[in-house]
Amino acid sequence: MPIRFAMDENTAEEEYNVEEPTHSLPESAEDIKLNASNNSSSFNVKALLSKRNVLIGGVASVVLLLIVIISVSLSKSQPPPESERLLATKSFLSLVIDTSAFKNANSPQYKAAAWLADTDVTTDIPTEPNDGVLFVQRYALAVLYYALGGPEWVFDARFLNKDDTCQWLQRFTTPDGQFDMGVMCTGANHVKELRLPGNNLVGSIPPEIGLLTHLHHLSLFGNGITGNLPAQMAALTSLRFLSLGSNYLSGSLPNWIGKFQDLKYLELGGNSLTGMLPPDMLKMTSLRELALDSNTFVGKLQTVLNKVPNLERIFMAENLFEDSLDDYFLADLNLKELDLSDNNLKGTLPAHFFQLPALKTLDLSMNTLTGELPTFPDTVDSLQYLSLRNNELRGEIGEEIWNLEGLRHLDLSNNEFSGKMPGYAIAWMYNITYLFLANNNFDQGDIPLLYDMTSLREISLKNTNRVGTIPHWIGHNLTQLVLLDLDNNALTGTIPHSLGDLENLNFLLLNQNELTGGVPKGFKNSVMLLLHDNKLTGDTELLCGDNKPESLKVFTTQCGGPDPPIDCSCCTTCCEDGQNDCVRGDLLATLDLSYENYYQRTQYVFSEDLIFRAQAPGEET
Predict the structure, then answer these.
(1) What integer pLDDT is reported at residue 498 of this predicted model?
(2) For the whole model, what pTM was predicted?
């Protein structure tokens, strides 16, 4: 490789700034002309000698310049002379680890060794491996600091402090309690816990992580970590808790994960991991919680997970698993939470899931399950969250659904259910806060009598063949309502004034009905009002002008065209009669609930450009 390509930017800059050496000719052009007229032979000899001298001088100068450049380049590409402490540090570490990375002065390993030797001068350098356990773990943490962009961390966690490694810790007090960031140790000063979640860690996990063999708890969740899981992690057989979720990890889940036989919690969700579950996972006999959601894993779950005997919580949403559910699917597990939403699962809904005495969460939404709902026994009331939306389930929803009296969240939308809407049964489920039955082919009927369900925060009966009027008790009884979606039915009559008095109501979707009359006042905290494709008349002055809610972002009526039936000066969209594409898309408030947010709503997603942050109960708009 030519020298010039090996030089760094500073050397190259120096090269371009070097001035060319100057050489004076022994004779000027006038002298040459004069001599030529007097003695042509004398001129030829002198001229040749002069040119030869210039050539020799120029070559010598170039050679000298190259020597200088080479010297500068080599001096800059080589590390400075190493101190005796650094040589001793490298010598000791070579007894216990692979030190090939020390050849690169810019490697995290070399930087960590140099810090130990030349900055951390109060730390004694051991000479025997048996005496250097604490020194090695200090080195491993220093490597991790440099490998994962330590200088750019949000909190330095007192890393590379000259104090004892076990004091590399920052402690915070939050409204939720005390929060620790950094290193925690055992009584023997071995690193037991390493917590650096959400701290802007960027880079790949270094192999030296495997030197922290006493580690029980490792949390690097929510950072910018890339690359594969290093093979050296297999040495961390004391781990009980491993959380590397919400990073950019790639590759497959290695088979050595089965060595973590004491591990109780494994969280790798939100990465770019792929492949099948490794067969040795069945050796993880202590595993209680497994979260591999939002990756691209393939294959079958049951082959491995059914043989992990103590699994209680499984979160595998947003993958490409292809199991066929039946009466044997995960039947040997005593599950408390199961989320397999958004996969490629087929088959029927296993009845044994509803016989599990401790099951609280069951989310099988966004798959292709078929068949009818099983019979719900009256002996289990632990289930609080049931989501089966976006499947191909059919048949009637039986009255025995009220046996699920502990439910707080019920979402059966976007299926093929038919028959009578089980309003009477649901009305006895007083704990429900989310009720979504949208986009099913129920028999034509009124809005069910839900006036005693005062905990309801969201109702969606969109496209369910509802007829009749909107009952006044919704505005009088359901005071906690945040979302009411009655879109695409055949409702008649006027909009009850009591709806405008609901202080928590942010989203009201009454579009695509046959409602008449005017738009009532109120709706002071509304974010979205969809009233188009009705037969409303008059004006909306009670809502526009000084009365317009500051929170209102989307407001639609039939105020478009040459002769609109309603006048609306503050509508964001004015639809025309007969206009089918007035509001783009099928606006349904997607339930984006996930276990990371304790299955609480964080946002309302109606379309790609209609996304709103969810508010906590009682929070002002």
Answers:
(1) 95
(2) 0.83
